[in-house]
Amino acid sequence: MLHKAIGKQLTCIFVNNGVLRGREAGVVRDVFVRHFKIKLQYEDASKLFLNGSKASLILSANAK
Q1: What is the 3-state secondary structure (H, E, C) of 4-50?
Q2: pLDDT digits (tens, 9 = 90+) for 5-30
Q3: d(CA 10, CA 3)
Q4: What pTM was computed for the model?
Q5: CB-based contacts of 25, cutoff 8 Å, min separation 6
Q6: Phi/psi zone of residue 27: left (φ > 0), alpha (ψ -120 to 50 degrees), beta?
């Protein structure tokens, strides 16, 4: 509904955090661009997110 109210001024941002299923990122991108005809900025932050999560797990394990 938001895209109908704002129109072409809307740009959505999709951040891939690395925990999506299989080809889910591609499907989401396709739906936004082809079906809804919405500008979409895609950012792949999976390595950054997963490395940060791994560091957090190590720190919390060492704190025990």
Answers
A1: HHHHHHCEEEEEECCCCCCCHHHHHHHHHHHHCCCEEEEEECHHHHH
A2: 888 888 999 999 888 898 999 999 99
A3: 6
A4: 0.67
A5: 14, 16, 42, 44
A6: alpha
